[in-house]
Design a protein that fits this description.
This protein is mainly α. 67% of the residues lie in helices and 6% in strands.
């Protein structure tokens, strides 16, 4: 579920085009390496459901129709978000940052279960030709994930061309499997197919909803295409559309047909007891040992490849959440030798290992857990796109078909939440824990607790000083560290300090008017760069461009009013701590901040600055709000 990521600094259209090398065929390859793996375990999982059994092919076909509608929406998600992000970006744009975070946590659950179920399924397929593996599936699965963690820490990653090779090999083998079944099936077996199709008459409404909801698992991995947009060849809309057409065509040729063959042709005993490896059993029954080996080799390799891409995708989500302040920056700690985010990789590997141990390697139970994050991410992506279309005044048939698609995935998710209480409990605990971590991280609950320890508090000033030295020695930035500002405070006395987060001309003008009214001619503007990981090694401690730009614009605005503005930069684990420290150091009598007119959710996350300053500013220092 990852992608070849384009560099973030394309200097020209030519360089950007050079970095965007994913053709529609390569897009298909990367997505099929993910979505195509569901074929190897979904038919067996569906058969084990008491309300599905031999109706599995019908429900896969029904879910395929919903998949068609949802696939068209994911094409639009790609071109609406050329920098990627998938459900996180869509939920953020359509709803709020916290909903985007919720989407990120759902997709992380999806990644965790992809890693777990792919590793376990891969081992089960190997066990069909190497019986000694069968009694140690959990151990071999854990060992495989640990090996993948090492590989990712070293920094070896698969390429799109490797995905192309593996996807093509797996697809050709599935076509071969279909071919040998068509050639070797006898009339009695074809009669079983007809009997299976006729079972549609036995379907009740609730049974249909249960089967339809469970069959969406056959199309897990669809989200991966939305992560590829940064590397898609321009125009993205055309590349994504053609790539998705290839995905739809290959899924149509494989998933419903092979599900029908496996359920119709294999014995009940095989389907029930060997449900983890129905495709290899089908190959062995109709094509003999060599076809069985071909299915096992390509299938197990593709499954382990999917486990690896899930680990990569998961740690990229972690890094994105950390960058947006929803996870501790420690998660981005990089390996000193290889430069890879080793903490994020370890977490992305360790949780799937715990899941495998918790589930005892039971593929059916893992599939139930998988559906929670998968359908939850589908719901947010689909409904979020509906909201964006509505805002864009897209109200035609595309909009209403999109709404119908949302209704389908919401229904499927709701039925799964009801029918699979263990999966619902597990998913809610995992996502709930993640949300507590996210809100606690944004509101500084955990960092304030960490930095309250004596040994941390004692070392923090040295870390801040070391970071400020970078500003002091950096040429061309034209801002001062707090230490430098302190040395010239007597030359440019001021009673007012602005605490800035971004450029705010109105806030600067209001501060200038206040200072002039008090007979002053100087003003301090402070930008506190929040870095919770003051003890995390970083390649560079250079100030963020957002803060430098805000301070430069403030200087220009003040100069036009005949006021000297001193641009000050400092670093802290908490903006409140940095602002309070600067107010004490510079001896001002008022701190001015802007108040955003955003939603209640935003204030829930960012309101800690206002509340913290109200409690912690020194006596005699007033807090003035603008806006």
């Amino acid at each position: 579920m990852t992608q070849p990521v384009a560099e973030s600094e394309p200097t020209s259209p030519r360089s950007e085009s050079h970095l965007r090398q994913l053709t529609p065929l390569l897009v298909w390859a990367v997505v099929f390496c993910d979505i195509g793996t569901s074929l190897y375990y979904v038919p067996g999982i569906l058969y084990r459901n008491d309300q599905v059994r031999d109706l599995a092919p019908l429900f896969v076909a029904a879910a395929f129709i919903g998949f068609l509608f949802l696939a068209s929406k994911y094409v639009e998600i790609c071109w609406r978000n050329p920098d990627g992000g998938g459900v996180v970006s869509i939920a953020n744009q359509a709803f709020s940052p916290i909903v985007g975070c919720f989407g990120g946590l759902l997709i992380c659950v999806d990644y965790f279960l992809t890693s777990a179920i792919s590793a376990v399924s891969g081992m089960n397929y190997l066990a069909s030709v190497f019986p000694e593996v069968e009694h140690h599936v959990v151990a071999f699965s854990i060992a495989t994930l640990l090996l993948l963690a090492i590989v990712n820490t070293i920094g070896i990653r698969e390429s799109a061309m490797l995905s192309m090779f593996m996807a093509a090999a797996a697809f050709l083998v599935t076509l071969l499997l279909i071919g040998v079944v068509l050639v070797n099936a006898n009339s009695e077996q074809w009669g079983a197919v007809r009997a299976n199709v006729q079972l549609v008459d036995t379907v009740t409404p609730w049974k249909f909803l249960v089967g339809f909801s469970g069959a969406w698992l056959a199309f897990s991995g669809l989200e991966s295409i939305s992560q590829l947009s940064p590397a898609m060849r321009l125009p993205i809309q055309k590349t994504a559309k053609h790539g998705m057409r290839y995905v739809i065509a290959t899924m149509l040729l494989t998933s419903p047909i092979l599900t029908l063959f496996a359920i119709s042709f294999l014995s009940s005993d095989v389907k029930f007891h060997d449900y983890e490896r129905l495709m290899s059993e089908l190959g062995g029954t109709f094509g003999g040992t060599w076809v069985k080996y071909a299915v096992v080799i390509t299938g197990s390799t593709l499954l382990l490849f999917a486990a690896n891409t899930a680990i990569i995708g998961c740690y990229h989500v972690f890094l994105s959440l950390a960058e947006n302040g929803f996870m501790p920056s420690t998660i981005a700690l990089r390996n000193r030798r290889f430069g890879t985010p080793q903490v994020a990789i370890l977490v992305a590997t360790f949780i799937p290992i715990l899941v495998i141990v918790f589930a005892h390697g039971d593929v059916e139970f893992l599939g139930d857990l998988y559906a929670f994050g998968l359908l939850g991410a589908f719901v947010l992506s689909s409904s979020g796109l509906d909201v964006l279309r509505w805002r864009s005044k897209v109200r035609g048939w595309r909009f209403w078909i999109g709404v119908l698609t949302t209704v389908m995935v919401v229904t499927a998710w709701g039925v799964n939440l009801h029918e699979k209480p263990n999966a619902t409990l597990f998913g809610c605990l995992l996502v709930g824990t993640g949300l507590v971590m996210a809100v606690g991280t944004r509101r500084k609950w955990f960092t304030d607790w960490f930095y309250s320890f004596g040994w941390v508090k004692a070392r923090t000033p040295d870390r801040i000083h070391a970071s400020e030295e970078t500003v002091e020695t950096k040429e061309g930035i034209e801002i001062l560290s707090l230490s430098q500002a302190q040395t010239i405070a007597r030359l440019y006395p001021s009673s007012t300090m602005i605490a800035m987060r971004s450029s705010s001309p109105g806030l600067v003008s209001e501060a200038i008017a206040r200072e002039k009214g008090r007979g002053g001619s100087a003003l301090y503007a402070l930008y506190v760069e929040e870095r919770t990981g003051l003890f995390v090694r970083a390649a560079s401690w250079e100030p963020q461009s957002e803060g430098v730009t805000a301070l430069r614009n403030a200087v220009k605005a003040a100069e036009s009013e005949g006021v000297t503005l001193i641009p000050v930069w400092t670093i802290s684990h908490n903006a409140v701590e940095g602002i309070v420290r600067a107010a004490e150091t510079l001896g001002v009598s008022a701190v001015m901040i802007g108040v955003s007119q955003r939603s209640g959710i935003y204030h829930l996350l960012r309101g800690h600055v206002l509340a913290g300053l109200t409690k912690r500013l020194p006596p005699g220092v007033r807090l003035l709000l603008y806006g």
